[in-house]
Give the backbone structure.
Amino acid sequence: MQKLLFGISILLLGFFAIFNSLKTFNPEPVRAEGFVKTDVIKGKEPQRIIIPEVGIDIPVKYSKIIGGYWQVFEDVAGWGEGSGYPGESGNQVIFAHARVGLFLPLRNVKSDTKIYVMQENNWYTYKVTEIKEVYPNQIEVVKPTIDETLTLYTCSGYQDSKRLIVVAKRI
């Protein structure tokens, strides 16, 4: 009986270890330091992001600042409240979970990869200029900018301990 209980205990521990390793995007949301809550100008917000080279084509939804953090959605990318609009100066920050159907393929992006951001009536083309991994507390990577910048943000590293940052400029 003791061997059976021991075996069940080991099995349960293994199950919990596997379950925890499957989690993506630590519960820590995206910190929106330096951004101000604003009303969205209808039609100017990004509605879709497409990166054909890595198979990303997902809707983008307006993400409010709540308690100093942007909402993170389970099924779409978020565009951070207060961040820049496509085609205008400022840092437009778009983020999503590192999951299949969202930003998991972002880890395969290379410099010079083209990214397309769609508004209601316009398309904007960007080219990847920088790719880096940072720790979650390194929020300077999503701070507002003077020039037009597109910053993509998702989890990476062992058990999502880091953040993958992809910076692109409009071409």
In short: The CA atoms of residues 3 and 9 lie 10 Å apart. The radius of gyration is 18 Å. The chain has a mean pLDDT of 84.
